[in-house]
Amino acid sequence: MIPLSHDRYCDEILTQNDALRAVLTGADLTATVPTCPDWTLRELAVHVGGAHRWVGEIVRTRAAEEVPEETVPGFEGPDGDGPAALDAWLAEGAADTVAALREAGPDAEVWSWAWERRAAFWARRITHEVAVHRADAALAAGVPYTVDADVAADTIEEWLRIVSFSQDDGDPEAAELRGGGRSLHLHATDVPGAEWLIEFGEERFTWRHAHGKATVALRAPLTDLMLVFNRRLEPTSPRVEVLGDAALLDFWLARSSFG
């Protein structure tokens, strides 16, 4: 599977943000988010909107180094406390960030914390940041969550790349994701070809698209597969099936959480 196009990511940022706003409309914004228990729904929304503005500032200014969050206009949230102000603030931030990404194009050089210092990195990253936090919001609000198959698959791909980068960068938890002879198979039951075989080498892990016997297999519809992989759905859920050594799946999830 290959990443989506830059234009598609830009479109998807708006799509995911609009879907998040729809979840928030009429919801109890003081409700605790079960998958992010330090946040209320409103605080989750402010986190997402702040991320939009931070990324927009990085791309718009072609930043060569990290931009301090406190220097980003509007980062802290809307001026008003009401839901209408929050909704307008979320819409404005996403629109401004997408405008900056479109104007820059995918190859514009900008700072990032990761392996790729181009605007393309941020278009992909903010797409999945919103898609996963929208799942948090949907769970808190008690409403259904769906996401397009290609977005769900790319969320898994990007997360594998982030965990791999973190391992190479010396993250102590990601460093433990190694040890020859063990493997993890992700198998989407509703999308042909949506499979990942994660293999633990002596020094690091690798992954590829393949169907094969593994130490543990996680089988589920693609959206649920993505949610488990991002720790938004428990692997014990009746919506998924775990075959083999479930402790290895737990081991992976615990060491790919980054807090």
UniProtKB/TrEMBL annotation:
Pfam families linked: MDMPI_C (PF07398), MDMPI_N (PF11716)
Positions of the MDMPI C-terminal domain: 150-250
One of the record's GO molecular function terms: metal ion binding
Annotated coiled-coil segments of the chain: none
Highest taxon listed in the record's lineage: Bacteria
Domain (Mycothiol-dependent maleylpyruvate isomerase metal-binding): residue spans on this chain: 12-138
SUPFAM superfamilies: DinB/YfiT-like putative metalloenzymes (SSF109854)
Gene Ontology CC: plasma membrane
NCBIfam families: maleylpyruvate isomerase family mycothiol-dependent enzyme
Name this polypeptide is given: Uncharacterized protein
